[in-house]
């Protein structure tokens, strides 16, 4: 047998093995117990992006070699996320800054946003603005509503915080509205309610203005029985904190002995302190001069002793 006759079957066998292997890779399903073939890449290897770099969606594949002529992609300079809404505290600061800058409309809108979200200082600021006609047309009923909301929602706020004194002031302002009422509105005079508001601010918050107003109501018998002793107690607490109106009223009450034992020397002391504090108020100076003229020499001397102790910080 010739050598070529022997090589021909071997070559045919080798070709047959190659066809079987090629058939296995080109197929998509199992045939005669053979495993499914792997899929062939639809895009030439040279045009596929490196792992991790995926072309943007909606952009057709670029032929190989064309990338070199395209400009590099520019990074985004702004976030696509929606802006974060302001917190009530941030809105309050934005509003006050806008008012200082003269932008009243923007300032009021920011304060209203903060107030609607429970920010007590924003409510107080708006209440004072409408009560005083500051940047807005005076509107006592709107001011009343803001102060009422503070009283309803912040009566138990922690003492000593930055907003505690503003809450106490809201009590005082609301008490004033109840004491006198608001003309042509549903808010009618209610001295009993006013007295209760003053009492809460005077006792819980220790507010000097509330203590003075409560003492005055007790002294005059507004909103309840007259009680000069309790009036004197509240007036002294307020006067010792430096409130001029309380010093004047307490000084006159003590000097005259109005419902309490007369203490002319101590009364003269309070009147003298008030006169020295409010030097431009001639009415206070006149009252002090009247008390000094009607005091005895001993009472004047004792008043001076009390005054020296006061300047040293003694409040007994």
What does this structure look like?
The structure is a single chain. The protein is mainly alpha-helical and 316 residues long. It starts with a helix and ends in a 5-residue tail after the last helix. It contains 13 helices and no strands. The longest helix has 24 residues, at 3-26.
Helix content: 55-70%
How far apart the termini lie comes to 140 Å
Largest sheet: none
User: Are there runs of 5+ residues with pLDDT below 50, and where?
Assistant: 1-63
Strand content of the residues, in percent? under 5%
Shape label: elongated
Radius of gyration: 44 Å
Structural class: mainly alpha
User: Helix count?
Assistant: 13
Sequence of secondary-structure elements: HHHHHHHHHHHHH
What is the strand tally?
0
The average pLDDT is 82
Secondary structure elements and pairings:
Blueprint: H1 3-26, H2 88-100, H3 104-116, H4 120-132, H5 140-153, H6 164-180, H7 191-203, H8 208-220, H9 228-240, H10 244-256, H11 264-277, H12 282-294, H13 297-311
Summarize the structure.
The protein is mainly α and 316 residues long.
Keywords for this structure?
316 residues; mainly alpha; 13 helices; single chain
